[in-house]
Amino acid sequence: MMFNIAQWRAWAPGLENTQEWQQWCLSPCIVEKSDATPDVSFLPAMQRRRLSRMARMAFSVGWPLAVGHEHLPLVFVSRHGETPRTFDILRDLAADQPLSPTQFSLSVHNAVIGLWSIMRGETSEMTALAAAGDGLEHGVLEACALLAEGAPAVLLIVTEDQPPQAYCAWVDDVPFPYAVALLLTSGSDWQLTLGSAHASQPKAPWPHALNLLRTLLSGQTLCQHSWKNRLWNWQRQP
Fold first, then answer.
1. What's the Cα-to-Cα distance from 132 to each of 135, 166, 174, 230, rounded to whole Å?
2. How much is the pTM?
3. pLDDT higher for 49 or 72?
4. Contacts of 118 (CB under 8 A, 6+ apart)
5. Average pLDDT over residues 86-107
6. Is the pLDDT reported for residue 59 higher than 80?
């Protein structure tokens, strides 16, 4: 697969602009736990009220990249999805409390793209993926298929929120809440290929989307991500 990364944006607590992300990439560390949420003041107040933190993260990085694109397909990737909302629903169920239909409708995996479609009036193709630890690469694969079908650009958003404490024994791949958006276009700046990973292949030190961000900001030309028996090779053309 070959493509261009025309633009990118990212957000995490305390990391909101290019300079802050450049500093983090030079010395990556776990961001201090925080309840901070990104600024989505570009949305009307009534619409903002429906957004969870994960949805706000997705909108904050994706909305600016969508400006000027009337028909922009979206690929949304999250391995764990709206776990805080789901946990609240399960807690109410265990306590024999009435369940909120709105809370349930906003907890499903494609809720974010549904809200995106409504708030932007966007009717282009949209996909929500949950693809384990290499969701980034599966999202790129889906985006490249859309580019091959004629889309002039595709927006890819990868985001994860901090899971509830009760899930932390099982969810070990979210060091802190983050969202990364890539505006992909046709081209040959980047090539992504799939190989077979060996048992000795080291696991990427950070979630793949953050590791790719380190590659983008450092100017490196090669990056590898392994997940189970898959080895993803990223190569930037000189």
1. 6, 20, 12, 12
2. 0.94
3. 72
4. none
5. 88
6. yes
CA triple 207-208-213, angle to 5 deg: 105
- For residue 99, being part of any structural domain is answered with yes
pLDDT surpassing 90 at residue 144: yes
**What's the sign of the alpha-carbon dihedral 182, 54, 76, 197?**
positive
Cα angle 3-216-155, degrees, rounded to a multiple of 5: 45
Residue of 87, 174, 103 lying closest to 133 (CA atoms): 174
Q: How confident is the model at residue 214 (pLDDT cuts 50, 70, 90)?
A: very high
Cα 2 from Cα 76, distance rounded (Å): 20
Q: Which domain holds residue 168?
A: 2-191
Domain count of the chain?
A: 1
> Domain containing 41 — which CATH number?
3.40.47.10
CB pairs under 8 A, 24+ apart, for 228-231? 228/132, 228/133, 228/197, 229/196, 229/197, 230/134, 230/137, 230/194, 230/195, 230/196, 230/197, 231/194, 231/195, 231/196, 231/197, 231/201
